[in-house]
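Write out the 3D structure for:
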Amino acid sequence: MEKNAYDIAIVGGGASGLMAACTILNRNAAPDIRVAIVEKDIRLGQKILSTGNGRCNLSNTDMDISHFHGHTLQTVESVLSRYGVSRTLDFFAKLGLMTETESGRIYPYTGQANAVLDVLRLAIEHSPFSVVCGTPVGQISRNKQTGNFSIHNSGTALYSRKLIVTAGGCVSHGSSSGGLDLLRCMGHTIEPVFPALTALVLDHPGVKSLKGVRVRGKLSISDGFGTFASEKGELLFTTYGVSGIPAMQLSGLLHGRRGITAHIDFFPEMSSDELTGILSNRSQSISTYKTENYFVGLLHRLVGAAIMRDVPICGTSFVSDIDNDKIQRIAVVLKDWKLPVIGAKGFAQAQVMGGGIDLSEFDPYTLESSKVPGLYAAGEVLDVYGDCGGYNLQWAWSSGMAAGVAAMEALNSNKIPTEGKASAICAKASNW
């Protein structure tokens, strides 16, 4: 075999690529099988370090399909059913990683994301695999006669019998499209991409004054047809809008919609009548306070000031001036503070990419391309993204494992690739 010729090449050394490589390593009964991992960044798995606020929320005990979004969720179900949480935890345990679970979310016991990356990197370092970092792939092609692949960067090339693309998407690669163009030019379809798990940009003058303020409540979003999604939890106000897990969960749902309004309920556990009663009692008990102190002990001072400006209450110097009509108006705003939405923050701030390569064009069991035999894909490059809470990493682990197993089994069975629709075409990434 030539120096740059391999049995399997993996383009992308992130979570799914590392899982595919480690899976191949574990199933490799023939030590002479050659594997190469090609990574754009200078080190493998860099993005893993930023997950879970540096703690790496690597999975979740609740893997209901409702936590995933995309156009072909039946394939996601198929992959997760065979390579789910238990297999992931067993895999990491064998690598030496101890985990703990908090409210369903699974973290490394050390509380440090580097623990997850270290066990993966060490497994690769102690393998016979070749690792090529700092090498963005600009082109892949497939030979008509042999079915083998060529992987090119500027001036050099690798060759492989099987190819797994785990190069991620716009979030992983900044302004470039990662593996999207590589797979598109091999004949695959791209579902429109958009930033997901990111903050909301609001069009409201009161928001800027709340920068850095955290509150608990329920965030809902509506369009001209009514409210279509809600999330409870901690919200973080910024100069441009609102962040926090509820905002991030809802951000991907804005794609393709117009005329969006955000609604914040600061007291989701109370009915409007209950809140009105509390406000009425408060007006009596602190009647001598100045109006600016009306929400003391109830709301953050800056939030209270913004609410008062929105009600609005004019000509009232003391709480005793707030009559029943004004109390009703305050209660309405506290239960439904309406904030027009401009949109979601872009890819630079997003945790994941929504959209991607059409998953229906891949086998639901092996993640092998239906267009190009011997080509597999896994991870974020595919049209799948999950909610906050370990779902995106679990998809990376599961899909990487599925592709690694399938590529290894196909290699071991000595299958000769048949001609696919995209045979011998050249795939060039326009932004690499």
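Residues 391-412 form the longest helix (22 residues).
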